[in-house]
């Protein structure tokens, strides 16, 4: 078979540890034999980030904006232990945080559904996508531990001298206070990313917050979503036969549990953090969760939802066998290839992405899987494969589909 040709390069962001090892193997076994793979390569491995004073992360994000589609391997976010392990010049920031700040995006996470890995919620027959706002709220807070009696106030001083003031609480004794913020521009981006993604996927969009209690803060999110929907999306949603609706977060949680899935659930930053772990776990495993960052002007960055699987990497370095699940990383590649195919009008490329995904699903459904899935499958006789044999098993099934 002739290799599939690409016209625009994918921005390839390599990463760290076990996922870096899998990355190479995925390219060699599942991509390069079938595609004339065109990528612009950025090494986001911690060694190279340190060598470039993290310049490479910024360059890769700018390349992502230039070309539109990137695929990213999991990367280490340095902490104290990594400072000495990698002899770092600085405790570099999380690459995901840097890329998000440059792209100003929303993170969409969707579980990969296979027979034999059954959701804990038995009526969930279709995937639920969580759309998480990735800016502000409690993640950019200011906090004070109040030592004793006194007045806590919320004060805004405008550039023109306007002062807005609210009493938070008159303390009689010790306690705590917290200040959080968000900006309309970021909420507007979040709303547009969600509406565009819903149109792209032809799925309903739910958004929920606690506007009955938070009459200004959460209400502002609700109002911005509604204003943008009415002005820009109402017609397009009707045309696509999909729906947008807002409800209270507690009502949303109850409805999600009773639903059969198949929609996008937009969440504020903290709600998305918590709910995406709940949804991933209830669908089976973090290793079966895809993740894509979408900017309001349609720039896409695909990755796996899990980390670099450090514990497996240390085993690998000692020459021990590992059974690391590469499915979410493979789906990061297929997501990016499909999008590239759509944008460049290369149907073969999008088709190939679909077949590679099907090959992964077929392999697991035939009972061949990595250890993380073998311990939760309803298949009575799973065959546990090591990291590399799993990728080879996917290749066999891919060749049969091509
Ligand atoms: P992790 O890499 O997600 O792994 C945590 C545990 O989850 C593993 O030890 C493993 O459990 C299981 N697991 C995760 N992915 C798996 C897979 N593909 N196949 C099989 N098992 C899997 O999280 P971490 O160990 O907390 O973090 C390691 C590094 O990743 C950190 O340096 C962190 O900064 C980074 N990180 C990066 C990203 C990102 O780039 N998107 C996200 C999160 C974390 P068992 O050990 O029980 O088998
Ligand atoms: Mg979390």
Give a structural overview:
- The structure is a single chain.
- By secondary structure, this protein is an alpha/beta fold.
- Helix content is 45%, strand content 21%.
- It contains 14 helices and 16 strands.
- Strand 1, helix 1 and strand 2 form a beta-alpha-beta unit.
- Helix 1 (17-31) packs across helix 10 (310-317) and helix 3 packs parallel to helix 5 (95-103).
- It starts with 9 loop residues before the first strand and ends with a helix.
- Bound molecules: NADP nicotinamide-adenine-dinucleotide phosphate and magnesium ion (MG).
- Magnesium ion binds at residues 273, 277.
The count of helical stretches stands at 14
Cofactors, ions and other ligands in the entry: NADP nicotinamide-adenine-dinucleotide phosphate, magnesium ion
Nearest-integer average pLDDT: 95
Structural class: alpha/beta
Spatial strand arrangement across the major sheet = 2-1-3-14-13-4-5-12-10-11
Largest sheet: 10 strands, mixed
What distinguishing features does this structure have?
single chain; 402 residues; ten-stranded mixed β-sheet; two-stranded antiparallel sheet; 14 helices; 45% helix; binds NADP nicotinamide-adenine-dinucleotide phosphate; binds magnesium ion
